[in-house]
Amino acid sequence: GKTVCVRHTTKKLLEVAKQNNVEIKTIYLNCKLSKIADTEYRLVAQLAREFGKEIPPTGLPTDEVYNLFLQALGDEKRIIILILDEIDQLVKKAGDAIIYNLTRLTSELKNSQISIVGISNDLVFSNNLDPRVKSSLSEEEVIFPPYNAVQLQDILRKRAAEAFKEGVLAEGVIQKCAAYAAREHGDARRALELLRVAGELAERKGNKKITMKDIDEAEDTIERDRIIEIVRNQPKQFQATLYSIILNKNKSKNKFIQTGDVYDTYRQLCNNIGLRPLTQRRISDVIAELDMLGIINAKVISKGRFGRTRDITLILPLSIELKIKKILEDDLFG
User: Fold this and answer.
1) With CB atoms counted within 10 Å of each terminal CB, which end of the chain scores lower, N or C?
2) What are phi and psi of 215, to 5 degrees?
3) Going by DSSP bridges, is the β-strand pair 113-119/79-85 parallel, antiparallel, or unpaired?
4) How far apart are CA 329 and CA 334, in angstroms?
5) Average pLDDT over residues 264-279
6) What is the pTM (predicted TM-score) of this model?
């Protein structure tokens, strides 16, 4: 909704500007795309290209790329609206100095002005910026609250009317879809994905209606796919830790797995596959991340003067656990 809203607003703004003979140029960049905005060089090079400058992918000093961008703007009077979608990803990859440099560009321009619109799902993103960057940005926040169940139903009905024939959706399907998504941060994409997957499952079974049972099955399918995708895209150290937990679960007679046992298995595994082992403290952090992702349950237990440990349990259905074990073996052992 945020990106659509920004695009709609800039479209209206361009219409008003045209009526009043004001030149406005909008530039939209998705900072999650690696070849566009994962470094300061690439971002500024992309901006320069928007104004007709040919910039090589690498090789020039960043200061020179800034100068080429300023030259491209020339002396023409105009307002530039720079929309940085997923701006938190840009700062994460390239640092917050880039924001400071962009806000300072206006002072170097004679007739042009640059306004920055940042879009982020991270509500506390700006709190982590350097105070000087935050001051230079002088931002005004517009908070988009999550969709509630009623709003999600509205969105789903409009999309369902285009996607499905009349009478295909059983009574209560839209409401259940919206309730699932509202429970998980009010994400409209999640609600639409749920309805799409439910439709695919019903179609595969040869059913003429999408039922509440299809929604439940779709929820399970999406959750399973989400966990598998997370595991597949994690770094080797993360995968080695999870594989060590699975190995310990299979050989342990106890209900809980101890952090120390996981670390011993992990070190041995690193030796076998030629991976440099992390410290036990860092592996404890990885275990905490696995807990947050809902792959394991890791309860912190105090051992008095012997310190603290975690009682770890794997909370995946057996079918998903076996698939993940196979993925980890393929990735770790080639």
Assistant:
1) C
2) -65, -45
3) parallel
4) 7
5) 93
6) 0.61
